[in-house]
């Protein structure tokens, strides 16, 4: 683990989201371990909103701060805690969480996802659409069919609307997206070998 965290970013591809200013680097691709896990390094600029409160139905995440302080909301709305460099928090499947950087300095952390599922495709798609100017000013895809496909890949449920309503809506939009071949519009953001996972 220490070896992975000491890798310099010029050895790995750093992708910058031009809308949010976030940067991501895939440290351990799920393609290298049969989908068991993915480990991604994120750099959030000062004031970054991070993610809304959400949870994953089958995937756990472990957040580890490398530099700076990461604010995390864990377990329920309003339950904030601050992780400092060297600190980690494990978020089991089903546990609500969000993160942000409300400080005046950059924060760097890793997210390890087990099992990886389609999380890499989700994050690569979100960044790719931002680079191509196909997101709103908050960084969310403007095409609802693309958004639904990405949320399904990330095994993500937003806190608020009932889960069954979200699943019904997302699954319906994903089916329409498949009929219309919308996934092809996202293929360019993914490597050849993970396009159908």
Automatic annotation (TrEMBL):
SUPFAM superfamilies (alphabetical): RmlC-like cupins (SSF51182)
Limits of the Cupin type-2 domain: 42-104
Pfam families, alphabetized: Cupin_2
Protein's name according to its UniProt entry: Cupin domain-containing protein
